[in-house]
Design brief:
alpha+beta; 289 residues
Length: 289
């Protein structure tokens, strides 16, 4: 640093003396020397800051990165190797033991049916807390089992504006189950509503030409007891569409054979053999699952 200051001082003095072509008087030399010394002293000091900046506290700059909450993936679906293992698991999770009545009471389905629904992905079982504020878990008996089903409802309309309703079903055990509801079908995993609607028409009515009416889709969620499995709470996610189906009788009542459910029935499972249909006014539909 000092050699640099010396060179600067010498340069300033030489520049000042070169301005005089004749020998400089003593007072000029003294003045030049004083200016050079003052310049060297000024250059050796660090640059000064305004008082308000000197007194201000030092600030640190931070780059704020928004934090995302950890994603909680849903628990894997419950699976069971056999209807017996399902029975052993589900009985302690119900307030009462209604399993013995499943399939024995006319119009209900058996435990084997529920096992098939779970294995095919049509139904899933979840443990629901009895209280939303109770997180103690299953060990304290604070959870009950909930049957969760996605259902596609197809409101088939006639040229007269009526809606096709399934009045009742004939089951494989000879009993009759009353329905009074539009065509409906439990959805398979990953199945779109339109795909499920076409499958329902094909399996229950034997028809392939289906036109889904644009803008007719509606969705709602209901929680209530299962009609097929009394005593088992259920959550129904209902996806409904309006449709037109070619080739159906538009006058009077008629029946159709089931083409899908009975093929994969197992021992003690109850399945639908035949569907019975009729046309009704829209106001006459009873929403029942």
């Amino acid at each position: 640093m000092r050699p640099l200051l010396s060179r600067i001082t010498a340069g300033l003095a030489a520049a000042a003396l070169s301005a005089f072509p004749y020998p400089s008087p003593p007072n000029i030399l003294f003045f030049v020397a004083e200016v050079a010394a003052h310049s060297a002293l000024h250059l050796s000091k660090p640059p000064s800051l305004p008082p308000h900046l000197l007194s201000a506290p030092r600030r640190r700059l931070y780059h704020v990165v928004p934090m995302k909450p950890p994603s909680s993936s849903p628990p894997p679906p419950l699976t069971f190797s056999s209807p017996e293992s399902l029975s052993d698991w589900i009985r302690p999770h119900l307030p009462v033991d209604p399993v013995a009545s499943w399939g024995a009471v006319p119009g209900t389905k058996s435990l084997s049916n529920l096992w098939l629904e779970i294995n095919h992905g049509e139904t899933s079982l979840e443990l629901k807390p009895n209280s939303q504020d109770d997180a103690r878990g299953e060990k304290d008996g604070t959870f009950t089992v909930l049957r969760v089903v996605n259902v596609t409802i197809v409101r088939i309309r006639s040229s007269r504006g009526e809606v096709l309703v399934e009045s009742h079903q004939l089951l494989s055990d000879g009993t009759v189950r009353h329905r009074s509801r539009p065509l409906s079908e439990k959805m398979m995993p990953g199945e779109a509503v339109e795909e499920a609607a076409h499958r329902a028409v094909r399996e229950e009515l034997g028809k392939d030409v289906v036109r889904i009416l644009p803008g007719s889709y509606q969705m709602r969620v209901e929680e209530r007891a299962s009609a097929s499995y009394p005593g088992l709470p259920a959550r129904y996610i209902l996806h409904s569409v309006d449709a037109e189906v070619e080739g159906l009788p538009e006058v009077g009542e008629f029946s159709s054979e089931e083409n899908g459910e009975g093929v994969e029935a197992v021992e003690k499972a109850v399945f639908v053999r035949r569907h019975f249909w009729k046309w009704v006014d829209v106001d006459g539909i009873i929403q029942q699952s």
